[in-house]
Amino acid sequence: MIAYKEFYHCKRIPNDDESIIEYEPPVKKWGNYQPLDGYVDTLKYGESVNQRWRLQVALRGNEKEYAVGDLMYLDGDKPDTTVKGYEYGDGANARVTAVKLGYKAIQVELEQIIERNN
Hints:
This protein is mostly beta strands and 118 residues long. It is built from 1 helix and 8 strands; from the N terminus they run E-E-E-E-H-E-E-E-E. The protein has one helix at 39-45; strands at residues 5-10, 12-13, 22-23, 27-35, 52-58, 71-73, 94-101, 105-112. The chain has a 6-stranded antiparallel beta barrel with strand order 1-4-5-8-7-6. A hairpin with an 8-residue loop joins strand 2 and strand 3. The longest helix is centred in the middle third of the chain and has 7 residues, at 39-45.
């Protein structure tokens, strides 16, 4: 059984100047994402395995939909567009780190965004 869950995706807008980072408006989507676990994932990521997810999305027409650097709202988080000064992507809790095309699905690897106050 595949458990599709709701998430929001903010696609990064390509820019020639790498210091300018902008995102498209969040789009509600559905996919199967799970936190990483298991022996191989733990060997690969160490203790940070607890801060990563793997998302599976059907391949049909979605080949260019996901890219490294995109932001997502997972596990019930939603964009709060009512906040004054809200910019697309504010409050997202995950960043895309890898996109792998398979035969029938796209596998997207995500890492948790941890806010640090300096």
